[in-house]
Structure formats: C-alpha cells, structure tokens
Amino acid sequence: MTESPAGYRRPRPGTQPGYDVPDYGSTRLRHPVRPLLRVPHGPTETTAPAMSPALYAPMPDMTRHAGGEAVGERIIVAGRVLDEDGRPLRGTMLEIWQANAAGRYAHPGDTHDAPLDPHFSGQARVFTDEEGWYRYTTIRPGAYPWGNHHNAWRPVHIHYSLFGAGFAQRLITQMYFPGDPLLPLDPIFNATPDAAARERLVARFDLGITQPNHALGYRFDIVLRGRAATPFEEDHPE
Amino acid sequence: MSGARATASQTAGPYWHLIDHPEWADLLRADGPNAGLATSRIELAGRIADGAGSPVTDAMVEIWQADADGRYDGAFHGFGRCATDREGRYRFVTLRPGPVPAAGGGNGWQAPHVALSIFARGLLKPLVTRLYFAGEALNETDPLLAAIAEPERRATLIARPEGAARWVLDLRLQGEGETVFLEI
User: Fold this and answer.
1) Is residue B103 part of a domain?
2) Which domain holds residue B119?
3) Using an 8 Å Cβ cutoff, are B96 and B114 in contact?
4) Rounded Cα distance, A238 and A17, in Å
5) Residue partners of B111: CB distance under 8 A and separation at least 6
6) If you classify domain A53-223 with CATH, what class do you get?
7) Which residues of chain B have a CB within 8 Å of the CB of A161?
8) A195 near B CB under 8 A
9) Across the interface, which of A36, A107, A167 has its CB nearest the CB of B64?
10) DSSP H or E stretch at residue B42
11) Interface ipTM > 0.90
12) What is the number of structural domains in chain B?
C-alpha cells in the first residue's frame, strides 16, 4: 500500500476518452451532463486495496477449463505495468476476460449465434513481478457483432482490469491486436481522440515471447498514472 | 519525467461479469480477507438509474473505504465489488468508516465516506463518487461537500439511514437529480 501525498498527475488532453461519445450509443443516457467536481487527492485516492495472491488466487492459463483444452489459436500475452515515470508496479493484480475463439462470451447475456466452448471460460487473474511483468496464456478471441449500428463488429480484444497502488490509478481497458481491419471502424477504440494513445491499446507481436512449437507471443504494456510532482501542482484546469 | 502517458480507459462492457465474484460484495464474509475482524456491520444499498430513469442493470459497482479509525493501511481490507441486479440495485455489507485526514496533509478531517465507482457498458471511464452518512457532524465541514455549492446537489452524496444499520444512496447517472461525480 504505497501512498503518494501529492496524488496523481491529471491526464494529458485527448489521451483518455470522454463520457459523451455519440458514435457509441450506450453513452447517450449514461453520461453525466453536469460538470464533474475535480477533487484533490487525499488518503482515499492515494491508497488502494492490497490484492495478494493469497487472497485472490492466480489463474494464469485460460486454455484449459473443465477438464479439457479450449479450441482456437493458443497465444501468450506478456507485458509490463509501469507508471508514467517508468516505475514498475509490483505485485499489482490484473483481471482479464474475453470472448472465445468464435467470438462468444461464456456469459448468459451474450446471444451471438456462435458456439460456446465448454473448455473455455474466458477469465484469468495474474500478478506482476518485481519488475512489473505479467504473463498469461489464452486463446486468441474472435471478433463479434454488436448492436451499436448497422453491421457493427467489435475488433478482436481482451479486457483488462488493474488496481495499481492508488484508487486514482484504477484502470479498466481493452487490448487490441495488430492489423485488425475493424479498428478504424470501432467507436469504442476511436473514442480516445489522441492517435498515439489509441495505438498504445494495440498489442504487438513479439518473437521473444513466442514459444517454439507452442504459441505465438504478444506484448502489451500498461501505463498507470504517475505521481504529481508537488501537492496541487496539477489541480489547475488545463 | 519519461514521456509515457497513462493507458487509455475503455469500457468494461456488458460481459464484465466474467470477473464477478458475488461474495466480494460482503466485505465481512466469513471466508474473506476480513474474517474474524470484530466489528459492527452495516449495509450500503441503492439503485442506479440512467438519464431516462431506467435501472442500470449491468453495472459493476466498486467501493474503497477506510476502517473504523479512518485508516486505509490497517488490517481491514476495504474493497468490495457488486453487480447491479435487474432493478439496478447494488448492496454491500461492510463497516462504517471513521473520519479520514484531509487531502494535502493539513490538520483537517474529511467526514466518514466510502468511495464508489461505477463501471458499465456505455461508460468509457468509471464514474466515481462518494457515499457520506446523513447526520454525521463532520459533513458540515467536509472539504469535498463544501465544494458543492447547491445543497440539493450535495444531497446526492449523502446516504439516508433505513433502520439501525442500513444506509441507502440512489445514484443517477444523468438528468434530474444527477449524482455529483468526481474527477479524481
């Protein structure tokens, strides 16, 4: 439980999505219309729950479930979790979830006409090591249609949830795959105005992570907010 | 300073329940991280509605709070997660936190509060707010509550008691009675 008395840096404009994104229909009735109240960071924002492997058992392999092997292209995903100053986040918990190879979630709400895989539940949980590295094995998920607009398809993606060292570092995001032709068409991916920030959501193929005769490897690094240099320094609107 | 920028947030989507563990909504559960902690339990509950007044039935609600002494680094594990139900309701079992030191390292105190985040389809970033307790004397001097000029908006953060140990705070994402959300 690390505490940063000065709190965390505010995001650079354009590097985070907004709440009101007309191209993403579900935001219409769910975005606040009143301005948010900007608050200085105190103990509530600079501390975070200590998620230990003892309390939350790691589940680093999604390719085996209920006594059998999942169908699809096996992949290994690894990367580092750092803050904006390049400091590794140690022992931070990542929760990961995704659709199966056919583009179907093992979720009662998913009614896409694609097969479920009895040997794939689509959930993982891993912790970073001393250098901030995490790693898990899974199946490359499939793209799937959604009802946002005519002929809408989500690009292939994997969901991530991270806690960080402070409540203000909490992040839920999605990792995308390189070369996906659906990326330029996806209102969720494109909700982040800054092109470089969008590109950082795309994993890259990594031969070093690839295991011979076993699985392709992808690298996906995640950056959480860095610490503000001095108290309240960044509490002025841009 | 390195040039790295924080990774962009993306929506948790409608299928986040793959990482739901319903027991996490009870912070005092017998086999949980706070098992054996001697404390009196309270319930935090409410209903989440969207801009049309319809229940938000697919949200993930998380709380983070201090212990009864206002500490975040004590034995108490003050994290919980809850899925809203078909009526948009959330419910946590926890303990009542104590006053927390003010931001910026001053001598002031913040009134007892629970930080609450909503993640959901249609939210590309979480909506963060706080739950305060009605009748708490420190509410009058809490710096965050004091920063909200309109009393009716301030009231959107103050849970009302229902019986001895149940506190209710309904949340409105948009429109009439919209909850005060925080940029943290």
Assistant:
1) yes
2) 16-172
3) no
4) 16
5) B99, B132, B133, B136, B138, B139, B141, B142, B145
6) mainly beta
7) 12, 19
8) no
9) A167
10) strand B41-49
11) yes
12) 1
Q: What pLDDT band is residue B106 in, cutting at 50, 70 and 90?
A: confident
Q: Where are the domains of chain A?
A: 53-223
Residue B6 lies inside a defined structural domain of this protein:
no
Q: Is residue B54 part of a domain?
A: yes
The overall average pLDDT reported for chain A is 94
- Taking only the tens place, the pLDDT of each residue in A156-186 is 999 999 999 999 999 999 999 999 999 999 9
Chain A, chain B: beta-carbon pairs less than 8 Å apart: 227
Task: Name the token pair of A227.
Answer: 């610490």
What is the distance, to the nearest Å, from the Cα of residue B144 to the centroid of all Cα atoms in its chain? 14
Residue B121 belongs to a domain:
yes
Instruction: Say yes or no: A38 contacts chain B, CB-CB below 8 A.
Output: yes
Contact A84, A9 (CB under 8 A): yes
Cβ atoms of A198 and A161 closer than 8 Å? no
Chain B hits for A168, Cβ within 8 Å:
184
Task: Please tell me if residue A191 touches chain B, with a CB cutoff of 8 Å.
Answer: yes
- Is the CB of A37 inside 8 Å of chain B's CB atoms? yes
CB A3 within 8 A of CB A225: no
pTM score, whole prediction: 0.96
Query: What is the C-alpha R_g of chain B?
Result: 17
**CATH number, residue B49:** 2.60.130.10
